[in-house]
Amino acid sequence: MHERHAYRPLLKVFTLLCLLLCNACTTFHYADDAWTGRDKAKHFAVSAALSAAATHAAANHSDRRGQQAAIGIGVSLALGTSKELRDARGGGSGFSWRDMAYNVAGALTGYGLYRATQ
Asked: What is the per-residue pLDDT for 89?
């Protein structure tokens, strides 16, 4: 697989998640949260750590940076998204797009930090 095609599986998963979220928008409970707060720092830090760890694990199995990025960032975002989906259920704090923004920023930062140390 060419390096430029390494992100296709991640793009397919992301597209599927977006379709599922949009399809179920009326059944979700959304959070009414602020952009700042302790939980935002936790979302960022955990996503960064997961991304760096998953990228490191992927590097042990593949020399292709595109595959490493897809696995590292993908694992982090999959876990962050599943946490938000769980929060969206009844009794949860609600699905937070702001938490997801911190998850994405953390995942990208974790991957970048791992790459910077190699």
From this structure: 79
Q: How far apart are CA 96 and CA 42, in angstroms?
A: 14
SS3 per residue for the chain: CCHHHCCHHHHHHHHHHHHHHHHCHHHCCECCCCCCCHHHHHHHHHHHHHHHHHHHHHHCCCCCHHHHHHHHHHHHHHHHHHHHHHHHCCCCCCECHHHHHHHHHHHHHHHHHHHHCC
The predicted pLDDT at position 67 comes to: 87
Distance CA 41, CA 64 (A): 31
Model-level pTM?
Answer: 0.76
| Encoded tokens for 74 | 């993908």
